[in-house]
Amino acid sequence: SGHFGETAKECAESYFYYGKSLLELSRMESGVLGNALEGVPEGDDANSSTIEDPAMTEEEKTDVEEEVGEALEENFQTLMQKEENEAIGKMESKEETDKDEGSTDAEATGSKDVDMEGDDEEADGSQGEGMDTSTEGKESDEKKECDEDEEPSNLQLAWEMLELAKVVYTKQVESGEGVKAYFEEKLCSTILSLGEVSIENENYSQAVEDIQLCIKKLESLPKDSRIIAEAKYQLGVAQGFNAQYDEAVESLNSAIEVIKLRTKNIKESVQSPKSPSLQKMEITELEALVPEIEEKIIDTKDMKKEAEAKTKQEAEGLSSTSGSKNVTSIAVKRKVEEEDGDNKKTKEDKTAAAC
């Protein structure tokens, strides 16, 4: 980009593959963190230990207490001896310093007052320079720490690189330079990768929007293109995380249909630019993808059931709470009605007595 310019067409491919690499690196980092934290208790479980302390006899406890006490006493004595030695050393060094200063003062008695004033000014100047240097050093250290704190993550860098690639490929498609179909496919791949970045960043609504835009742009490609299958699979993943479970299942089933169509076309194709060994390898890869997507469909349906069960539990909790409130209000109402009835009866009795 320094040679051709930031949005030059020569940089598009570099931006794209660099962004893809950063995305994969971010996924690897997330995987490593996930594996490292696997099995670590969360919340209240973190405070409870599953390992029971071994039982100790009274004699063993006494021995341990004695050993700990002896170790503490020994450590205390060592520290006291160390402090005493340091104090003696400081006193000796102070005496030597006082002697040296006395001899120096005797030798400097015949010097002029002007020289002393000059020396004081030089000392003040050097002290001021030292303070300025230390202040500048602190400021540079603080600036360095801020720069380190603001360093972007690999996921953020991936998004930036893919956005640049998207800008460049869009310009090439609009200008009509070169093979338009090639640049359209590259642009779609870039938008799809941006959708994957949004999934990793847990911005699922944005991911759905990006991938749907990608699928719309892929309508001009053959129906059995692998990028269409990949886009529909990623759309299903994003929709599942975005709580669009039915749409997610539909997208995942569409991805399976595209894969099966491509497998069928490869098997039936007589003339193909690929060698038989490469065709066989691609068929094996495609057939292996179908069970994985079917498993993802099952997971999505399970996610839907869990979400519905959670919603039902919350609704039942709210209804039980409101029910208890209604019972209380009814009891209060009855009490008020009873008091009103008593007052009315008393008033009627008084009226009857007056008559």
Q: What do you see in this structure?
A:
The protein is mainly alpha-helical and 355 residues long. Helix content is 81%, strand content 0%. The longest helix is centred in the C-terminal third of the chain and has 79 residues, at 276-354.
The biggest beta sheet reads: none
Count the helices. How many?
9
Outline, from the CA principal axes?
A: elongated
Total E-strand runs = 0
Radius of gyration: 40 Å
Beta-strand percentage range: under 5%
The secondary-structure element order is HHHHHHHHH
Oligomer: single chain
* Average pLDDT metric: 75
Ends distance: 109 Å
Contiguous runs where pLDDT drops below 50 for at least 5 residues: 43-54, 344-354
Instruction: State the helical fraction.
Output: over 70%
- Structural class call reads mainly alpha
Task: State the gist of this model.
The chain contains nine helices and no strands. The protein has 355 residues and is mainly alpha-helical. Helix 1 packs parallel to helix 5 and helix 7 runs antiparallel to helix 8.
Topology:
Elements: H1 12-37, H2 58-107, H3 113-149, H4 154-175, H5 180-200, H6 204-217, H7 226-241, H8 245-268, H9 276-354
Write out key terms for the chains shown.
mainly alpha; 81% helix
